[in-house]
Amino acid sequence: MSQQQIAENLERAFAQKGFAEPSVAELKALSGVSMRTLYKYFPSKESMVVGALNYRHQRYLLLLESCHDEPGLTATLSAFDTLSHWMKQHAPKGCLSANALAAFPNNTEIHFAVETYKREVIQQLAQISGRED
Length: 133
Prior knowledge:
By secondary structure, the chain is mainly α. The protein is built from seven helices and no strands. It is elongated and about 50 Å long.
């Protein structure tokens, strides 16, 4: 199984169970790999969180890219409608990034990943809206 497939499974596990509940042993089982393989790609629970966040981030950006029509109000409203549906379907416990920050408030790697993600989403929404501000 590839690192990306494992990250996809971790994203799903954290979205459904949150960050506090699943142990590394449970994450291993939900990832469908051996402990050795899991630790090969993600050597700590925090790195598993970052892997899941990075995977989700890429999916989120691809979703936003699909909302590009003519920049402006219509495209912006369409993007937010799309995001609303996506959140209902893929974020049953709320924003994965916000939940990760709440669960690991002192982890610099998680903070960096979330801050990078936020900047890129803001840039994407600026392009969709046609307004850099």
